[in-house]
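writing this on my phone so excuse typos. first protein, seq and then structure
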Amino acid sequence: MKWSEELIRYIVVGIVTNVSGFLFYVLFTTLGVSPVLTISIFYPISIGLAFNFNKKWSFSHQGRIPTSAVRYLYVYAGCYVLNMAVLKFFSGYLGYSHLIVQAIVVPIFALLLFVAQKYWVFRI
């Protein structure tokens, strides 16, 4: 499959999982479930769905699930730590709006995650 096709599929998976996750977040918090509990429930579900859709559809990966799953979790954990460091530095230390910082880094991290998944997580 061409690199551009994989990227488009990856973007579709990202949009679908993130929009649906956000809608569930809004629904459950509106119904009175705490934001922390809601995130704790739906974040792992969202990551699991994205893993499966990216593995099967975006990258057509036929490899072993345990290996790719562990790599997937490593990549997301690394991005999480990096995101927190960037947010803390630019928002907490330099005083930039956290919304602006996230608006800039989210697309950058999405691209980094795509490259990591294509060339390491789901490599054949």
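second protein below, same order as before
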Amino acid sequence: MRQVSSVKRTTVKSGTAKNRIESPLKQTTYSNEEFAQKVQEKAYQLYVARGCANGYDVEDWLIAEQIVKGS
């Protein structure tokens, strides 16, 4: 999995700029049951967002896994 980081420019009192690396991704650990539940919820959200079109269940599940792993 590729981790993305952003550079945030802040100004300190002396007026000089300072760069700080911040990761927008949270590192969260789930049990197997919690992970499956989060993926199931996200896959359902994807299904509903597509207008409840059938035939995309595996695609929704795989996309949901990637979303949950990245959150």
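Strands lie at 6-11, 17-22. thats all i got for now
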